[in-house]
Specification:
The structure is a homodimer. Chain A is mainly α and about 240 residues long. The first copy, chain A, has 2 domains: about 50 residues, Arc Repressor Mutant, subunit A, CATH 1.10.10.60; about 170 residues, Tetracycline Repressor, domain 2 (Orthogonal Bundle). Chain A contains 11 helices and no strands. In chain A, α1 packs across α2, α4 runs parallel beside α7 and α5 packs antiparallel against α7. The interface between A and B is medium-sized, with 26 and 26 residues. The structure holds a DNA duplex (30 and 30 nucleotides).
DNA sequence: AAAAGATTGACCGACAATCTGTCGGTTACG
DNA sequence: CGTAACCGACAGATTGTCGGTCAATCTTTT
């Protein structure tokens, strides 16, 4: 019954389960017992790989944010695109964040997961704000922006972006759209850009994303349904392993 | 040995101790045992007045934010002052927030207290953003602002205000000042106000505050020292009422 | 109106059920 | 044969519950 795996493999296994569990029940409500039971390992094994429960959380945050930051960095350093699109693209890359952390992002904003939320925001801000600031300075030089405080402007933009759209859950589509338009306009004003310049950039990006989403739509449908029914395990405890 | 008090009295007593403890050690690290031991009541008594530990936290958040919101509301509705000063005054009223919650505010931003932080921010935003939005609309009508999205602008301002100055702890004075200047400039831009108009308003308010602080400096000196040494009670319990 | 009884709600403290992190020992792999 | 993954019992601590106590207040009775 004893299965030995490489440290890296087992670590990822733990992170996978923990991520799902934290997102499902919240960091406090999901116990380390839940984790080890679902994987089928012993208590000692968990603590052989991670020094504490919070250590696991940190690793999860690191894993999720790494992708988003890398994506943003890639977009920013792609000097083929015009500056406006690089800026808006980078900001979008962090929030929409498909694939991996989607389930986490859905549940992250509940009061339960305040810690997770804060840690992700911290890391996201620390990693991306400097890049955005550099971008703004570049815009200053090229004349499309006119910002006296690039670093602070970048911070303001990112903080708002990562905090304002938390309430998505109980917001209607039209409100979200209005909020998005307001956000773009305000960014333009903060950066001293010509009005409408970022709006255009964002439209281009979204169009591009919609097209690529269209392309791989077929395979997604089944997964969607499965995820919805899976929600809560319901029957817990009552272990009977002879 | 059994001391009976009115429910309200006892509740406040619990909140006082809990607030101090949460601020000192963080919500998770402070246990309900710490609370009841320091007050000298039994477990059952605590849970007679509050249904859970989190319920206590909610009550604390409510108590603290109530003051700040009331202060902001008072400033906003004081139509004797010019609009600019009411706006900046209201924003300042929430963050500086002297007296009551000061000790809490000092400790609130540590990763330990993510939950407290989030709950306070939520309540603060929900309570004040509508007021600020109304103020912006008033400014639109009187011609000093030109904002197409007053509600969203207010939200952006408040979110940034309550999140950006979290790192005060490890920031140098000059950085804070720079950040403050940038913040004001960015607000002016977001609201489409004439540049410098809010800067002036803030200077007036700060001057006024400094003066009033000067006035009651004499009586405060003793208290100040007392409070500093008071920090940790150290000797707990040991009540002897014959 | 005073005494006796009943009701209410603050208060108590033992207890169940968890949860986290530790530690000495075991087993598989290189 | 040593290192590192793995195990599971255990200590210590925490939250919330529950039946029961006690004092103050209201009601009834004499």
């Amino acid at each position: 019954m004893r299965v030995v795996k490489s440290a890296e493999e087992r670590k990822n296994e733990i992170l996978d389960v923990a991520e799902q569990l934290f997102a499902e029940k919240g960091f406090d409500n999901a116990s380390t017992n839940d984790i080890i039971k679902q994987i089928g390992i012993a208590r000692g094994t968990l603590y052989h790989h991670f020094s504490s429960k919070e250590d696991i959380l940190d690793a999860i945050v690191e894993r999720i944010t790494r992708n988003g930051i890398a994506r943003a960095r890639a977009i920013i350093s792609n000097t083929d695109m015009p500056l406006q699109e690089r800026l808006t693209g980078a900001v979008l890359a962090l929030n929409i964040s498909g694939e991996a952390g989607e389930e986490v992002f859905e549940q992250i904003h509940k009061p339960q997961n305040a810690l997770l939320h804060q840690k992700m925001q911290e890391r996201l801000l620390g990693g991306v704000v400097p890049l955005i600031a550099a971008l703004i300075e570049e815009g200053n030089r090229s004349g499309i922006f006119e910002s006296e405080y690039p670093a602070e402007a970048a911070e303001m933009i990112m903080i708002y972006a990562s905090a304002a759209f938390d309430e998505h859950l109980d917001l209607k589509a039209e409100e979200i759209e209005r909020k998005g338009r307001a956000f773009i306009l305000h960014i333009e004003r903060i950066l001293g850009a010509e009005e409408g310049i970022l709006r255009e950039a964002i439209m281009k990006i979204l169009l591009r994303q919609m097209k690529s989403a269209e392309r791989k739509k077929a395979g997604t449908e089944k997964e969607e349904k499965q995820r919805r029914t899976h929600r809560k395990p319901c029957r817990e405890g009552k272990r009977s392993d002879p």
